[in-house]
Specification:
191 residues; eight-stranded mixed β-sheet; two-stranded antiparallel ribbon; 28% helix
Length: 191
């Protein structure tokens, strides 16, 4: 069965966005893009909440076509266009979208079906705090790929707001980047 890995930038105090969804505090550079790109290239499925999906869909399909597109934009645009996308949404129910599956009800059953289908590659859950919280409630997240940014926000949207029971994690990798961002990659320690 494929695993769902939540990929998030996070502040030192556990927030994934500011109070109004601000993400201007996230540090990204070529070193980080190259590192993240290697792992993203190994998956073929992205999972999003509606807001993040619409933000991605508004940029990535054509980002690599721009005359001044960076290597990262070209590479990620190409990956995005061929990747399967799964979107948790109550408002996109009846839309037909390229390479996209909309999940609007029976979340646990539908996501488990998606996890069992495919070629064994992991499913990356990109950002999407609301979708992450929904999947946490159903114990559907198998790991966390976190990029801890060197900032304390004090308030905002917390990553672990909906966790009701203890979840034991096993640290798989860690890496510090020149920007001060630290990667922490965990998998859930299943009993």
């Amino acid at each position: 069965m494929r695993k769902i890995i939540s990929f998030m930038h996070i502040s030192l105090d556990g927030f994934v966005a500011g109070p109004n969804g601000e993400m201007n505090w996230i540090k990204v550079d070529e070193e980080l893009f190259d590192h993240i790109g290697k792992r993203i290239d190994q998956t073929d499925t992205a999972l999003y909440g509606r807001k993040t999906y619409q933000m991605m869909e508004g940029y990535w399909p054509t980002a690599g076509d721009a005359a001044d597109a960076s290597k990262h934009d070209k590479d990620h645009s190409s990956w995005y266009n061929r990747a399967q996308k799964v979107v948790l949404s109550n408002t996109l129910k009846n839309e037909v979208l390229t390479n996209t599956t909309i999940v609007s009800d029976n979340i646990a059953d539908r996501i488990n079906e998606i996890k069992q289908a495919g070629n064994g590659k992991e499913i990356l859950l990109f950002g999407s705090p609301t979708a992450t919280h929904a999947l946490m409630q159903h114990n559907l997240i198998d790991g966390y790929w976190l990029f801890v940014n060197p900032i304390i926000l004090g308030r905002g949207i917390p990553l672990f707001a909906s966790v009701k029971d203890q979840v034991k994690l096993e640290l798989m990798t860690t890496r510090q980047f020149k920007s001060g961002v630290t990667e922490l990659s965990y998998v859930a320690a299943r009993q």
